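Competence protein ComK: structure, please.
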Amino acid sequence: MSIEKYYLINQYLMYMYGFYDRNGKVCTLVTQFDRVFIVDRSPLEILDDSLRCIGFNLKGAMDTSKIIMGNNMMCPVMINHIHNICVFPDKSHKNEDAIWFNPYHILRTQSLKRKTHIEFRNRKVLIIDSKLFSFNHKLKSAEQLSKITIENANNPVCFIIEPPNKIRKRKSKIK
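Here you go.
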């Protein structure tokens, strides 16, 4: 398995998650459609690097997601609206071992003894320790964010803000 210094999220990403190497540093295992490799950066650093390449940052993307989807703790993040790449975590993004999924590659989900059995488009399978209802809710939220973002990119909403009226000071009469 190869080790990369940097990685930018692309449309081939299926999922990625963080783990600690033997020196206690957080690294990321990235699974793409056709290959698996390790990146010498944390998942949040990879997300931020990928967003910075198109002129955004992770904090701004998370804030925007919360505005669009409601103030949700585990909101999905739109990585690239041009390539329609959206990812969502299976648990809080603050957990280093959170798995970040790309909903585009998820073919089907099933319940398996209080766990979720995920089948991807390339027929690979992943079983995670999450209830099916919870996982499917996060999956649908990511799909909704992607749909809303793409629709708004094609039909932008414009607001006209008028300048404030000048307040004229009246001279008061002093008696």
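Notes: The longest helix spans residues 132-154.
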